[in-house]
Amino acid sequence: MWTPVGQRVDGYWLGSLAEPGSFARELLGFSGDPVVLGALLVGVVLVAVVRGRFRDALSAAGVVVGTVVAARLLKVLLPRPEFDLVGATAHNSFPSGHVAAVAGLVVALLLVVPRGARWWCVAPGVVAVVLVAASTVLAGWHRPSDALGAVLVAGAVGRLAAGARSPL
Fold first, then answer.
1. Terminal CA-to-CA distance of the chain, rounded, Å?
2. Locate the Phosphatidic acid phosphatase type 2/haloperoxidase domain: which residues (predicted)?
């Protein structure tokens, strides 16, 4: 995103390939719905509460909220340089808020489930994040680097939360 070559490669995929009513657009509508995201967050928090892990419940909520807030702040704080590439847009879409929210939920879930159950949550979580990330690219909303950046933000916030709740 910071070099002409990088923007060319990244921008190659920035075109709306998803038709209205397509799976990609439907998934984005679902994954961006605040009611759905809120219900999923409540479910994650309830897992921790049922396990008697109240600090984990707070950590999980903090991961989701922190990831979404960090993604929004990064859009403002990291301007996208303009290199006057043909067909390129300087619109800063980094990182994807949809992907950040879903990735944050997956990371939060991994913080609250028992250690032995984490592998059962990783695979469907990765599938969910990949589907939402691919949908944002197919719909022309984001570049691949926007989706990857959102995943990295969720991972970083999750690591901070995990480090704050227990010693390294």
1. 33
2. 89-161
Predicted TM-score of the model (pTM): 0.81
SS3 33: coil
pLDDT on residue 165: 67
Residue type, 46: L
* pLDDT per residue as tens digits for the range 25-61: 788 888 888 999 999 999 999 999 999 999 999 999 9
CB under 8 Å to 99, separation ≥6 — which residues? 129, 132, 133, 136, 142, 146, 147, 150, 151
pLDDT tens per residue, range 95-145:
999 999 999 999 999 999 998 898 899 999 999 999 999 888 888 888 888
Please, which residues have CB within 8 angstroms of residue 25's CB and are 6 or more apart in sequence? 18, 19, 135, 139
Spatial distance between the Cα atoms of 87 and 85, rounded to a whole number of angstroms = 6
Asked if residues 107 and 150 have their Cβ atoms less than 8 Å apart, the reply is: no
Q: Which two tokens stand for residue 64?
A: 């989701």
